[in-house]
């Protein structure tokens, strides 16, 4: 962490001067990440697909708090949208240091009821969309060149994965397949690109209180069931993930490459084995 030139007592925020894109940032975990990056000093593009009003509200709130944020529409599962998104990010922020490839959806169904359409839609957004954004990000980082005064890395990519990159999930085969694929996409990219000082990592959230999983926490009964899967005894909040994203995007994690950080209150610890086994 660097110190401001004028006063040795003022510590700069960890992402001061950095430019970030967060996809799927108009709600949920993406919103939490965008707010946290902005709070840590980054200029942030809040990407959204359809919720323009929400994206505008989030950006104005960030600006009111003294931050810099711009909403930009794009459906990241479409290659031409991705290209345009990165062009608009370049015009809006003048460059790019951090990409949080976060956009994700669920279309749940029992295995034999899962339509080909819902299979493809989830894979297109949660896996192909992440791939398209990451590929575009790497090309832009290379073109931009390395400003070591801004960041120790040439560029940072953080994927939003899920505990379901590791935990099989009945009734959600499309989602778990996409997240399992994302794990090896992230690791393969990290291995290939580390020599260029591009850091690629992932965050794997567990149950975070957002619209996507509202059925799992909005009634007392559902919440009680959910908490049985969370040793730490609470449902997560978007801020829990935002804080980890700030760290993974900052120079504080400069030696962290190709890692998944689980932010899940211990969900991965086979809580059913607390008794028995
Ligand atoms: C899913 C949520 C789910 C959580 C834990 C996430 O990746 O999007 O719906 O609650 O995993 O199972």
Summarize the topology.
Layout lengths: L18 E4 L5 H12 L3 E6 L3 H13 L3 E6 L5 H15 L4 E4 L14 H29 L10 E6 L12 H21 L4 E8 L14 H8 L10 H12 L10 E4 L14
Helix pairs in contact: 1-7, 3-4, 4-5
Beta-D-glucopyranose binds next to loops.
Explained architecture:
The protein is an alpha/beta fold and 277 residues long. The chain has one domain: NAD(P)-binding Rossmann-like Domain (Rossmann fold, 3-Layer(aba) Sandwich). It contains seven helices and seven strands. The protein has helices at 28-39, 52-64, 79-93, 116-144, 173-193, 220-227, 238-249, and strands at residues 19-22, 43-48, 68-73, 98-101, 155-160, 198-205, 260-263. It has a seven-stranded parallel sheet, sandwiched between helices. Helix 4 packs parallel to helix 5 (173-193). The longest helix has 29 residues, at 116-144. The model has no long low-confidence stretch (mean pLDDT 96). Beta-D-glucopyranose binds at residues 106, 162-164, 206-207, 212-213, 216.
The best one-word shape is globular
- Within CATH, the superfamily carries the name NAD(P)-binding Rossmann-like Domain
The CATH architecture assignment turns out to be 3-Layer(aba) Sandwich
Query: How would you sum up the major sheet?
Result: 7 strands, parallel
Number of helices: 7
| CATH class annotation | Alpha Beta
């Amino acid at each position: 962490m660097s110190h401001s030139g004028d006063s040795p007592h003022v510590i700069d925020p960890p992402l001061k001067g950095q430019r970030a894109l967060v996809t799927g940032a108009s709600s949920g975990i993406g919103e939490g990440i965008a707010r946290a990056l902005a709070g840590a000093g980054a200029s942030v593009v809040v990407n959204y697909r359809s919720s323009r009003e929400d994206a505008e509200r989030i950006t104005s709130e960030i600006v009111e708090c003294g931050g810099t944020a711009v909403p930009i529409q794009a459906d990241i599962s479409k290659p031409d949208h991705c290209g345009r998104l990165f062009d608009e990010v370049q015009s809006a922020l003048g460059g790019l240091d951090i990409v949080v490839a976060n956009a994700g959806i669920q279309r749940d169904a029992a295995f034999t009821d899962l339509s080909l359409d819902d299979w493809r839609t989830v894979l297109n957004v949660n896996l192909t969309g992440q791939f398209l954004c990451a590929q575009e990000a790497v090309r832009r980082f290379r073109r931009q060149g390395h400003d070591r005064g801004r960041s120790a890395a040439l560029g940072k990519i953080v994927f939003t994965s899920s505990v379901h990159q590791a935990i099989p999930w009945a009734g959600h085969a499309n989602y778990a397949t996409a997240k399992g694929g994302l794990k090896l996409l992230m690791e393969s990219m990290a291995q290939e690109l580390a020599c260029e000082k591009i850091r690629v990592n992932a965050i794997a959230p567990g149950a975070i209180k957002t619209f996507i999983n509202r059925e799992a926490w909005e009634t007392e009964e559902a919440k009680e069931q959910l908490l049985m899967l969370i040793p730490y005894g609470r449902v997560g909040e978007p801020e829990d993930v935002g804080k980890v994203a700030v760290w993974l995007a900052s120079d504080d994690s400069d030696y962290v490459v190709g890692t998944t950080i689980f932010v899940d209150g211990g969900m991965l610890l086979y809580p059913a084995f607390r008794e028995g086994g």
